[in-house]
Design brief:
single chain; 79 residues; mainly alpha; 3 helices; 0% strand
Length: 79
């Protein structure tokens, strides 16, 4: 039961990021790119690198997206 709940929470987070990206930019990456970048970014953000994790999650999402879709994509110019 807990695994099902955890998977649904992570899926809703990914869908939230995907929906926000579609709202901000019409040429946002597909849902699969978000499925492979958002959960690892949350794992990186959990590491105690800086106090309070200031900017770690955002930097991880940007770097993972650059690796997934390429740094010269039009979507990356918004970031």
């Amino acid at each position: 039961m807990q695994i099902l709940l955890s998977c649904s929470v992570h899926l809703s987070l990914v869908l939230g990021f995907y929906t926000a990206a579609q709202a901000l930019s019409g040429d946002a990456p597909n849902l699969l790119a978000f499925m492979f970048t958002v959960p690892p970014a949350f794992a990186v953000a959990a590491l105690p690198i800086l106090p309070g994790g200031v900017g770690i999650f955002e930097a991880a999402v940007i770097e993972f997206m650059k690796a997934a879709i390429g740094g010269d994509a039009p979507f990356m110019k918004v970031m």
